[in-house]
Every structure is written in C-alpha cells, then in structure tokens.
Amino acid sequence: MRAGIHLRRTFDRHETAALLASLYLWWTGKAWHEHRAHLALHSPMTEAGLLYKPSLRRRIAAELPGVGVGKSGAVADHFPSVRAMVGAEREEWMQIPGIGKGLATKITAALDDK
Questions:
Q1: Cβ contacts of 51 within 8 Å, gap of 6 or more
Q2: pTM of the model
Q3: What is d(CA 41, CA 44) in angstroms, rounded to the nearest whole number?
Q4: How far is Cα 97 from Cα 104, in angstroms, rounded to an integer?
Q5: How many CA atoms lie within 13 A of 64 on its CB side?
Q6: pLDDT, tens digit, 9 for 90 and up, residues 11-53
Q7: Domain extents for the chain?
C-alpha cells in the first residue's frame, strides 16, 4: 500500500472473474473525454509513502528547489506558517539543518519568483 500497489485477493476463479469484470466496468464507465484524473497536479508526497496527510507547509516546502520530501519535514517544523516560510530571508533558511547558503539562496530566489 505504501508503494501505491493495491493487492486484491480472490479465492476462486468465479471471484477472480467477478473482480476483473468490476475493474473493467470501473475503467470503462466513462467516455474517454470525461476522464480527468490525469490532469491532477503531481504531488511528491504521494510517492513518498507517508502514512499521514502532510501539512500544507510541508507540501509547499517539498516543491521548493533542493528541499524535496527529505528536508520538507525540517522546513515545516522550523516555520510556524506558510506566510512565515515565504517571507523568510536567506539567513532564516540557513538555520534549518541541511540548508546552506547556496540552497537558501536558491529557495529565496524561487520564492521571489526570480
């Protein structure tokens, strides 16, 4: 489940056939142009295999250059809000473990949309 693989166990051929029929109907229940799931934004948190829904601070931090899923937890713990994270200067970012001067510069430039 953590890797995004869903296992469905069946006990005999009839149950397997019923499951396959159900999945087929589920996949083909809409017209091709009605499918919209592929338009969703990519979320690295989904692929991270977290067992809980991450906070907005952590999801935003994970999108910043050089932060990713690994450092996003430390970033979310450091800042009390998204507003504080976005408004922080380079020196504030450098106080977070794993974020040095170069990475802090990249992050603040990205937040300034430069």
A1: 2
A2: 0.62
A3: 10
A4: 11
A5: 28
A6: 999 999 999 999 888 878 888 788 776 676 666 565 556 677 8
A7: 44-111
Work out the burial of residue 107: count CB atoms within 10 Å of its CB; fewer than 13 is exposed, 13-18 middle, 19 or more buried: buried
pLDDT in tens, 47-88: 556 677 888 999 999 999 999 888 999 999 999 999 999 999
Q: What's the one-letter identity of residue 51?
A: L
CATH number, domain 44-111? 1.10.150.20
Residues in the chain: 114
| 3-state SS record for the chain | CCCCCCCCCCCCHHHHHHHHHHHHHHHHCCCHHHCCHHHCCCCHHHHHCCCCCCCHHHHHHHHCCCCHHHHHHHHHHHCCCHHHHHHCCHHHHCCCCCCCHHHHHHHHHHHCCC
**How many Å from the N-terminal Cα to the C-terminal Cα in the chain?**
39
